[in-house]
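Q: I have 64 residues here and want to know how they pack in 3D. Can you give me a structure?
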Amino acid sequence: MTYDRLVCANCAAPVSEGRCAVCRASRERLQQQSGGIFAQLSPAVLVALMILLIALGVLLHQVA
């Protein structure tokens, strides 16, 4: 989940702005959690990669 759409329950401001201590702490925690290799890819790119891998697997299966 990205923090740019979250609203802080403490100050009712977007968490990405970091207006209060709760926002800043939540923003830091979410930034640390979203460090995976596929975290920055959009769902459309992930689906395209999956289709590409499936097509490659079918192609290799037919050749072998």
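Q: Anything worth noting?
A: The first helix runs from residue 21 to 33. The chain has a mean pLDDT of 84.
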